[in-house]
Amino acid sequence: MTNGCKQMKTTLYHEIEPQTLDDVRRNGLKRKGDGEKSDSDTKTADAYLDTHRPPETIRAQLCRDGVLYGFLPAGDGIVDIRNGAAVDIATFDRDRPQTLLRIAVDPTHCFVSDLDLYDRVKRALKTAESDDECHRLAQVYWQRVIPLLDYEPGSIRRPEAMVVADIEPADIEVVSPDG
Q: Which residues have C-beta within 8 Å of that of residue 48, sequence separation ≥ 6?
């Protein structure tokens, strides 16, 4: 049953390769985990974390290999996941080769992860830490992933948005001036 109220959406940012823009405008954004990731350490960490998900993340359809990743807004800017700094959107966009999109998302389909903790998992796997330590870090990583609605700006130094839904073309706006 619906109460006639339109679901409120929140704004995130997402990057795509410029050559995919026409397809995104026609078909929207589809969930996939690798995004622009190409290095094997990242793919290994994602696969490891996905095999160590707790039941509640499985129920929420949350996994590193089946989401859209996004950048969180910070006032009039954007949170740069490289260092956690809030930067001006035009500056952020100018410094990167991808096309920046502003996406409207249902916040109940969004989670926030801790990229510092993610990097610890990735390092532990790369340096062949003990299985127990890798497992412990995976558990801590998933415990720290929170619903976007529960996220307090600044509570995670390098936050990464994870969206468990596809985004329709009507909910996508090109931010990059060349788009």
A: 121, 125, 134, 138
Domain boundaries, the chain: 16-169
* Contact between residue 110 and residue 163 where contact means Cβ atoms under 8 Å apart: yes
- The pair of structure tokens assigned to 132 is 């127990």
DSSP string, 86-137: EEEHHHHHHT-SSEEEEEEE-GGGEEEEEHHHHHHHHHHHHTT--HHHHHHH
- For residue 179, name the pLDDT band (cuts at 50, 70, 90): low
Number of neighbours of residue 124 by Cβ within 10 angstroms: 19
This model's pTM is above 0.85:
yes
The confidence band for 53, taking pLDDT boundaries of 50, 70 and 90, is very high
Q: Who contacts 4 (Cβ-Cβ below 8 Å, separation ≥6)?
A: none
pLDDT of residue 5: 60
DSSP summary character for residue 176: S
Give the tens place of pLDDT for each residue, 56-90. Answer: 999 999 999 999 999 999 999 999 999 999 999 99
DSSP string covering 18-45, please? GGGHHHHHHH-B---S-TT---HHHHHH
Residue 166 phi, psi dihedral angles, 5° rounding: -75, 160
Burial of 145 (0-12, 13-18, 19+ CB in 10 A): buried
